[in-house]
Write a structure and sequence with these properties.
Blueprint: E1 13-16, H1 32-37, H2 39-45, E2 49-52, E3 56-57, E4 69-73, H3 80-92, E5 96-101, E6 105-107, H4 111-116, E7 130-131, E8 151-154, E9 159-162, E10 169-171, H5 177-193, E11 197-200, H6 226-229, H7 235-245, E12 253-257, H8 263-269, E13 279-281, H9 295-298, H10 306-320, E14 327-328, H11 338-341, H12 350-362, E15 367-371, H13 392-404, H14 410-420, H15 457-461, H16 467-480, H17 482-486, E16 488-492, E17 499-506, E18 509-516, E19 522-523, E20 533-537, E21 546-547, E22 552-556
Parallel strand pairs: 1-2, 1-15, 2-5, 5-11, 11-12, 12-13, 14-15
Antiparallel strand pairs: 3-4, 6-10, 7-9, 8-9, 16-17, 17-18, 18-22, 19-21, 20-22
The structure holds 1-O-alpha-D-glucopyranosyl-D-fructose and calcium ion.
Length: 557
Amino acid sequence: MEEKHTWWKEAVIYQIYPRSFMDANGDGIGDLRGITQRLPYLARLGIDVIWLSPIYASPNDDNGYDISDYRAIMRDFGTMADFDALLAAAHAQGIKIVMDLVVNHTSDEHPWFIESRKSRTSPYRDYYIWRDGKDGQPPNNWESCFSGSAWQYDDSSDQYYLHLFSQKQADLNWENPRVRDEVYDLMTFWCDKGIDGFRMDVISMISKDQRFPDGPMKPDGYGDFSPYCISGPRVHEFLQEMNERVLSHYDLLTVGEAAGVTIDEAKKYARSDGRELGMVFQFEHVEAGNGRGSLVEKWTLGKPQLKNVRAILNKWQTELAGQAWNSLYWDNHDQPRAVSTFGNDAPEWRELSAKMLATCLHLMQGTPYIYQGEELGMTNTHFRSLADCRDVEELNAWHQFVEEQKKLSPETMLACFDNIARDNARTPMQWDASANAGFTAGTPWIAVNPNYPAINAAAEVNDPDSVFNYYRQLIALRHTHAIIVYGTFEPLLTDDPAVYAYARHYEGQTLYVACNWTQDTVPCPLFDDKAGTELISNYKTHESGYLQPYEARALLV
Ligand code: TEU
Ligand code: CA
């Protein structure tokens, strides 16, 4: 079936994690004025849309994913005037801005929660999820995503509140129509400012099974909330209401972050009739290297294998076709760096493998996301001790698995952090070879990756063979070849141990793509009998019948 054409299917999105992007005032923390200063860099890269990780007022327990005022800007990041200036400057350069909407939970410092916690009879009590304990224990066995029970006891009212993430991220009660009204109002506030869309944080978890049953036990000693919170009973009803009340009144890009979502569910969230969201952001392929049953299994030294990643991505490509739209990403602020995870960050292979991964992903069907620094081939960093870590997930996991349960030694946990900690993605953007990578004139809130003198934007922007200019080329190709946006997807060579290959078909043309995921030269007959135009490759010359180490090629026939 022919895909319906929309601007957000044709766009390339660039995700900014404001805290780590550019510090304009020297306090060590990235800010809105810093982003505005760097817009020309993004315009040069050629992206269409910026997704801003949260910039609202927040005590920063989870770097802005814990919001205390949805209508104010985080003090560290600037003022509302700075935001208005950023939005205007972006629009003037043809770049749209999508906001992060975090409404599964608020900060415990949000006025709603402060009121809610005051007493059982507070008019705001029902904005959150309060329950009695069971025999001095939490209401059920659910484990928080950030370690420990998902319930926090509150002395003054002798009840527990639910927090699927940190204790400072209290889950909103979406069963309460007043909560939903509040959310729709704040969304309207931002839409009326002229923003271009929303990325919706853990939107798959807003509806909870109201029986609150115990979940299946995990090896950590807690229960799994997923069967009762992921794509819960009323989630589609809520999203359709949100769509009717807000989304349908504007021309927005909407993407639902949907950890744990199945293909069948994804087809409902991103239904092509537009009654819910534009697309979902799923996690299966980025979790292909992790144990997925429990938190402790997340902390692994494992790497994803081509075989699994390919099977997962091909499944999403083929099964959503014509029914729902894909998001394409390797990197974001919750993942270790893609080149270190799926590619090879050794100096001799880093650029080749970064370009190979970019080719592999950007020529699929869906809207591609680039996470800041990915376009430079930025890599994972090294954590020498817990003092190098900032992320609440890492700090809590250390406490639970190293200190309390002694399931992992400190050395092993640090090695796991090097492999998959979220802070790998949160080291400052590497702008140039000057102190602190040109990110700040002060002391950065998290250490700069020591490899910045070799890997930075200044070195790459003018080098035609850089990773940056390769991404630039891929983005430009998407803008000029409708086959890349709308072509159907056909998996090829699905049993090949080294090569990820596929074809795209559109209006009588075929685009063949083949990517060698290994550092060996490997047989690949795909191009031998074909003549056409090479759209892109990370090698200048090819060997017939073979792909060279990490070689990627795309041929339009
Ligand atoms: O993430 C939700 C989520 O389910 C995961 O990405 C989770 O953070 C990860 O598995 C932990 O390793 C979103 C945001 O992207 C993340 O930054 C926030 O911490 C989280 O929600 C809570 O708001
Ligand atoms: Ca700053």
